[in-house]
Write a structure and sequence with these properties.
This protein is mostly beta strands. It is about 5% helix and about 50% strand.
Amino acid sequence: QVQVVESGGGLVQAGGSVRLSCKASGFDFGAYTMGWFRLVPGKEREGVACINWNGGDTYYGDSVKGQFIISRDNAKNTVYLQMNNLKPEDTATYYCVADGILYGSPSIACMQPQGDKLWGQGTQVTVSS
């Protein structure tokens, strides 16, 4: 089955850290850019972080630069999002996404939420003040 499944969300206090994981299956994980988007009701989807097929190139949204770190383990078909120094405004549903372009650019993948992408079901992260 072709899918990506997130885990690791929850409730955390401001200033705390959370690591999200995304396990992929059913496709050649190591050939695709992976990313994390977040959605807050009433706002547009935001490309938070994306990483290219071998981890050698990353993109971060301006709002999370220096705060979040994306990484991947191709042997485990898993991509991670380390979220540090969390703020209440980071509260959102976080989605793991597999870009649909073979060996695609992480910046393009993150800046274009539309298009051929495989989305997970999302995991909620709530940051309390």
